[in-house]
Amino acid sequence: MNQHQESKYRVKAIWKTLQGEGLFAGRPAVFVRLVGCNMWSGYEQTRQRDAERNGGSCPLWCDTDFTKEGSQDYTAEALAAAMQKVGGDVRFCVITGGEPLMQLDYTLVKALHKAGYFIAIETNGTLSLAERCWDPKAEKLEAPDWIVCSPKLAVPQLQLEFFDELKLVVPDYKPEDFDAFVGLQRINKIHNHTLPLLWLQPEDGARLQEARKMAIETALAHPQWRVSVQTHKILNVE
Ligand SMILES: C[S@@+](CC[C@H](N)C(=O)[O-])C[C@H]1O[C@@H](n2cnc3c(N)ncnc32)[C@H](O)[C@@H]1O
Ligand SMILES: Nc1nc2[nH]cc(C(=O)O)c2c(=O)[nH]1
Ligand code: SF4
Ligand SMILES: [Mg+2]
């Protein structure tokens, strides 16, 4: 790409809310939902087809609209400015999707760091972070500060190099199937006090009651794992 062609990011929504899930649940955040996912088209008619084609069941129960309808394109600087307009003083952001690693790159991470954000992302683990966040000029990784991975394929098919939190949606994903992946959890100051950040999140939807019961039973049988409740749905915020 030459210097006159700036990368643009297709954004479904920017909003200020509370992080609903995981370690930072309850914390005010600016959310950015990027358009597009490599597991599902985002359209109701292809849930079944995409689950079969992509070998992961999440299209069957994904709770999110990340389609291009109503989206807007931003350069990295314009997105940072729009986030500051929406979020005011909030300097914790969550980049999600869809699958954010289809679009997020070192240019965007750099712009958000320059704007003072602590950057968290929510990713399905199927894509490499290092490939997108390697800054060839600076010869270093310009990576988000906090990586939450909710894996959607089996371990041999995952490309993510490291993460800070691991979140399995129950019942389709089970602790015993991710033993080999848990070791990629990054150790840092926060982890030293709270290890391990391993979550079991009940699948919301028609099977919620059953999924909750299984998450509770699984945590009691595998005490390294904790249950994650989607608190934004209880508090009735987006
Ligand atoms: C919509 S995804 C977007 C980020 C990324 N594509 C991923 O799957 O991690 C955000 C989070 O919501 C979770 N999620 C999606 N649908 C859900 C559902 N019906 N019940 C519980 N968690 C769900 C995902 O597992 C993920 O942790
Ligand atoms: N409040 C709130 N917290 C969230 N944490 C992860 C979310 C996501 O969809 O990635 C999410 C979301 O959609 N809303
Ligand atoms: S859960 Fe994540 S990976 Fe699965 S379809 Fe939804 S956005 Fe895509
Ligand atoms: Mg959500």
Features:
238 residues, alpha/beta, TIM Barrel, 9-stranded mixed β-sheet, two-stranded antiparallel sheet, 8 helices, binds S-adenosylmethionine, binds ligand 2KA, binds iron/sulfur cluster, binds magnesium ion, lyase, 7-carboxy-7-deazaguanine synthase, iron-sulfur, 4Fe-4S, rSAM
The top-level CATH class is: Alpha Beta
- Strand order in the sheet with the most strands: 3-1-2-4-5-8-9-10-11
- The quaternary organization reads as single chain
Q: How many structural domains does the protein architecture include?
A: 1
What name does the CATH topology carry? TIM Barrel
CATH architectural designation:
Alpha-Beta Barrel
How many strands, what sense, and barrel or not for the largest sheet?
Answer: 9 strands, mixed
Helix and strand sequence: EEHEHEHEHEEEEHHEHEH
Distance between the termini: 36 Å
The fraction of residues assigned to DSSP E strands is 15-25%
Unreliably modeled segments: none
Q: What percent of the residues sit in helical stretches (DSSP H or I)?
A: 25-40%
Number of helices: 8
Gross morphology: globular
What is the gist of this entry?
One of its GO terms (molecular function) is carbon-nitrogen lyase activity. 26% of the residues lie in helices and 23% in strands. The chain has one domain (8-235): TIM Barrel, CATH 3.20.20.70.
Task: Provide structural commentary.
It contains 8 helices and 11 strands. It is globular and about 50 Å long. It has a single domain (8-235), classed as Aldolase class I (TIM Barrel, Alpha-Beta Barrel), CATH 3.20.20.70. With 238 residues, the chain is of the alpha/beta class. The mean pLDDT is 95. It has helices spanning 47-54, 76-87, 106-114, 129-133, 179-182, 189-194, 208-221, 231-235; strands at residues 8-18, 28-34, 72-75, 92-96, 118-123, 134-135, 140-141, 146-149, 165-170, 198-202, 226-227. The termini are far apart. The strands form 2 sheets. The protein has a 9-stranded mixed beta sheet. Strands 6-7 form a two-stranded antiparallel sheet. The longest helix has 14 residues, at 208-221. It binds S-adenosylmethionine, ligand 2KA, iron/sulfur cluster and magnesium ion (MG). S-adenosylmethionine (SAM) is lined by residues 37, 61-64, 96-99, 122-124, 150, 152, 167, 169, 201, 203-205, 230.
